[in-house]
Amino acid sequence: MPLQIGWKYLPFKEIRVKSSSFCSSLNGLRIVQLSDLHLTKRVKLDYLKNLVEKINEIKPDIVLFSGDIIQTSALKVKEHLEHFKNLEAPSYYVSGNHDIVYGLKDLNEIMCKNGVVCLDNKIVCINVKGSTLQLVGLSDRYSFVRGIKRPIKELFLKLNPDLSTILLAHQPKDISHVDDFRIDVQLSGHTHGVQIFPISLMVKLFQPYFSGLYMYKKTVLYVTNGLGYCGLNIRYKAQSEIAVLTIN
Q1: DSSP β-ladder status, 234-236 and 131-138
Q2: Which of 5, 107, 175, 193 would bridge with 225, disulfide CB 3.0–4.6 Å?
Q3: Full set of structural domains in the chain with CATH
């Protein structure tokens, strides 16, 4: 299906992620990655209700949002965001560049009230399968526009190098910051894969991590095409996806 129009699809995509450094006790870890939803009032509430129900049926260990959740004020899509309170798995998100434009404060308040934890420039450790998993998140690369600092080195120095670690960062180029630290897996979005062909051919010239799986030194990077649309509600040869990642 080369052409997609509008919010009609729940395109779950299974991806196997091989990481030689990931703790063996976490083998089989299942993650649903949601990215680039770009929610507006045009998205029907029933669509999000069905999305959450389908995610719960999959029974992931965690749900991770890799930015660009909104394409309007969070207050205008408050009812949409409230559906995420029904996610049964622990859920976390980082901001994207569009979230910064449309207002992080309201987004943070609404997401927090509905049980989705903000990971912007934070580290959390969670218990999964009887082992400890370390999550670290970065706010978007354009955070400085709103006076938000990204203390990347200071943050990464606080990571426990003995723990399996997933980095959540909206823009895949943030992979350049992992060199001196144990980051087993980075999950990103932003590119939309680039939504409409042949624009993608040009984007590849300045966006080396474009769509799919990459290996950067010892870190596995997955860049999802994301679920939503920016601009026209059309995708051509860059199909939307809801990534379901199994790490082993």
Answers
A1: unpaired
A2: 193
A3: 3-247 (3.60.21.10)
